[in-house]
Amino acid sequence: MVLPISSITLRRLNMKLKNPFTTSFGTMQTKGFFIIEAADDDGHKGFGESVAFSSPWYTEETVETTKHMIKDFLINIIRANKIQHPSEVRDLFKPVKRNNMAKAAVEGAIWDLYSKQQDITLAQALGGTKQTIEVGISLGIQPTVDELLKKISRHVEEGYKRIKIKIKPGWDYDVLKEVRKNFPDTQIMADANSAYTLDDIDHLRKLDELNLMMIEQPLAHDDIIDHAKLQSVIETPVCLDESIHSADDARKAIELKSCQIINVKIGRVGGLAEAKAIHDLCHEHGINIWCGGMLEAGVGRAHNIALTTLPQFTMPGDTAGSSLYWEKDIIRPEVTVQDGIIPIPDKPGIGYTIDKEALESFTVEKEIFPI
Ligand SMILES: O=C(O)CCC(=O)c1ccccc1C(=O)O
Ligand SMILES: [Mg+2]
């Protein structure tokens, strides 16, 4: 049976983050992104969210490249092909190299549309099994250690299951040592966003004494060789984020022992089908995975929640509550977290309703493409 799609709408939104978010690369305050709406003639609407940032610091994609890819390539592919199941979109998009975040935004809208047509949840469509998921929070680099400690206290009290701390040279060992001293029993991890090289091995080895859950992407964004060298001489488990763009990348990293853990982001790997393939591979190899975040608005957050219902997502992810990022999110209800837990919504598709007024108020550009 063909999966009917009658139009795809591309909406560009601008939303201001409640708090600036600082990584080893710089600070973000507003987020531009696309909400993709895939509609059929029976009134079903599926939604996807693009996660590329305005500048290419995390991967090579940007808001502008996302638009170019979707408008000039991906929509034409959808138009030219009959789709029976959303898992086919991954192969249809293969002739377009990389540009994973653009692909994921369109593919995600089609998964949501399909789930609504079938009257099942997106989690069910993916084969998810959990009724609730556990989440942690990611804290950007703060102006002072004191401010970091205050934020950690607040989130530990709220019940977040683990605290991730962004690090960079000059904001690492001493800061984490202070954190560990104040929070001896909290699950703490660090994310370097590729700020180090193998020259820093001795420095990174000092982190072993702090009993961190893991160190995320310490070395180059495109590396799996040096990470294997690093992992062989440090005890702290290495987690890869930027380096993994596909199940094939994950296979190679596992084979080389470049990491013990993988952060799976739907956008970075090109969509839900690829994310599920990475999940299945890691399940087979006993590699723990968790769902990363890209400072998403509600639609992206809902997709992350659905993906995390798959069983090998054994570690708390970065999908924190909407109100930590936004004055007002674009979904109803907003994502709320209690004691570090998010219940899986039971409505069809992503399970959250689009707040049309909010969506409209953040929209700066809109284009409809008939399919
Ligand atoms: O809170 C979130 O959504 C995740 C925050 C985060 O760590 C992050 C935010 C933007 C870009 C990259 C990363 C990352 O995981 O490396
Ligand atoms: Mg990361």
TrEMBL record:
Keyword entries, A-Z: Lyase, Magnesium, Menaquinone biosynthesis, Metal-binding
Cofactor(s) needed by this chain: a divalent metal cation
InterPro entries tied to this protein: Enolase-like_C_sf, Enolase-like_N, Enolase_C-like, Mandelate_racemase_C, Mandelate_racemase_N_dom, MenC, OSBS/NAAAR
Top-level taxonomic group: Bacteria
Catalytic activity of the protein: (1R,6R)-6-hydroxy-2-succinyl-cyclohexa-2,4-diene-1-carboxylate = 2-succinylbenzoate + H2O
EC number, as in UniProt: 4.2.1.113
Any one Gene Ontology molecular-function term assigned to this protein's record: magnesium ion binding
Entry annotation: catalytic residues: K166 (proton donor), K265 (proton acceptor)
Record-level GO BP terms: menaquinone biosynthetic process
Ion transport keyword on record: no
UniProt domain Mandelate racemase/muconate lactonizing enzyme C-terminal: residue ranges: 145-237
Binding annotation for Mg(2+): D191, E216, D241
Known pathway: Quinol/quinone metabolism; menaquinone biosynthesis; Quinol/quinone metabolism; 1,4-dihydroxy-2-naphthoate biosynthesis; 1,4-dihydroxy-2-naphthoate from chorismate: step 4/7
EC class name: lyase
Keyword Repressor: no
Pfam families on file: MR_MLE_C, MR_MLE_N
Family: Belongs to the mandelate racemase/muconate lactonizing enzyme family. MenC type 2 subfamily.
Function: Converts 2-succinyl-6-hydroxy-2,4-cyclohexadiene-1-carboxylate (SHCHC) to 2-succinylbenzoate (OSB).
HAMAP family tied to this protein: MenC_2 (MF_01933)
PANTHER family per UniProt: O-SUCCINYLBENZOATE SYNTHASE, O-SUCCINYLBENZOATE SYNTHASE-RELATED
Name of the molecule in the record: o-succinylbenzoate synthase
Species, as recorded: Lentibacillus persicus
Lineage: Bacteria, Bacillati, Bacillota, Bacilli, Bacillales
Name of the gene this protein is made from: menC
